[in-house]
């Protein structure tokens, strides 16, 4: 497969990432003081000043992904690397805190599911960074992107179940309890 053949998939990835960054920025903006508090709890420096900067950066990346996909994708990779590094630091610290990744309402403790989500987003950001400008995606591009999103969502949810319950497929049936 050539880069030209991946161009439609790069367009789908750019639009999907732009929507995700718009959602994230809007969620943070709806409760900027709560977002700043979440940033403070996880130990980020100057959280009151940092919160609006992160919101502005996410809006800028979203619009850049649509207007200049290569530039937007490179900026998205930069933000996602920084965000993922913060998540990994939080996990390594052992503190069960929310990251405020999607606003103050997102109150789940950070776990491997969040890192997996960000790795998937990083992979998605590489597509528009390497395929160039926007082109009309083919049906196969839409099917491939849909399959990737569904697969990633299942993996992330399985990791969340593992984080909350301690196992994914080790559930005992009612008659097996106590054996």
Describe this structure as you would to a colleague.
The chain is an all-alpha fold and 179 residues long. It is built from six helices and no strands. The chain is globular, with a radius of gyration of 18 Å. 71% of the residues lie in helices and 0% in strands.
How would a crystallographer describe the biggest sheet?
none
Distance between the termini: 53 Å
Helix percent band: over 70%
The quaternary organization reads as single chain
Contiguous runs where pLDDT drops below 50 for at least 5 residues: none
Order of helices and strands: HHHHHH
CA radius of gyration:
18 Å
* Tally of helical runs: 6
Strand content: under 5%
- Structural class of the secondary elements? mainly alpha
- Counted beta strands: 0
Mean pLDDT: 78
> What coarse outline follows from CA principal-axis ratios?
globular
Briefly summarize what is shown.
About 70% of the residues lie in helices and about 0% in strands.
Record the SSE blueprint.
Layout: H1 7-30, H2 32-41, H3 47-67, H4 69-93, H5 112-131, H6 139-165
Helix pairs in contact: 1-3, 1-5, 1-6, 2-3, 3-4, 4-5, 5-6
């Amino acid at each position: 497969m050539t880069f030209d053949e991946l161009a439609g998939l790069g367009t789908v990835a750019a639009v999907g990432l732009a929507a995700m960054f718009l959602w994230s920025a809007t969620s943070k903006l709806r409760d900027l003081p709560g977002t700043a508090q979440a940033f403070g709890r996880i130990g980020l420096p100057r959280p009151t000043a940092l919160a609006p900067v992160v919101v502005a950066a996410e809006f800028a990346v979203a619009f850049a992904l649509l207007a200049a996909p290569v530039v937007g994708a490179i900026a998205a990779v930069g933000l996602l690397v920084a965000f993922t590094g913060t998540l990994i630091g939080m996990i390594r610290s052992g503190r069960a805190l929310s990251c405020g990744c999607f606003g103050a309402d997102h109150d789940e403790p950070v776990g491997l599911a969040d890192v997996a989500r960000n790795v998937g987003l990083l992979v998605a950001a590489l597509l528009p960074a390497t395929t160039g400008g926007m082109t009309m995606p083919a049906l196969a591009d839409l099917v491939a992107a849909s399959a990737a999103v569904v697969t990633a969502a299942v993996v992330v949810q399985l990791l969340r179940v593992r984080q909350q319950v301690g196992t994914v497929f080790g559930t005992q049936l009612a008659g097996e309890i106590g054996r």
